[in-house]
Write a structure and sequence with these properties.
- There is one protein chain.
- The protein is mainly β and 66 residues long.
- The chain is built from one helix and five strands.
Length: 66
């Protein structure tokens, strides 16, 4: 698996810091100027500016199939 920083809607990504519930897998559920990601452990969603998301992104785990 390569460390790829290109992401698209519904991809599963890993962030640099885990969520307080202990899970580190997130799904991208909205993209625009802001990006909303949903925790795969507890279902909590977080919205952040795209620049902050790119800075905190560690890697793309699974890409959404077309």
């Amino acid at each position: 698996m390569t460390v790829d920083k290109t992401f698209q809607l519904y991809d599963i990504v890993e962030m640099k810091k885990p969520h307080p519930c202990g899970e580190n897998r997130w799904q991208i559920i909205r993209m625009g100027a802001d990006i909303r990601i949903k925790c795969q452990g507890c279902g909590h969603s977080v919205m952040m500016p795209r620049s902050e998301f790119k800075r905190k992104l560690k890697k793309v785990i699974a890409q959404q199939e077309e």
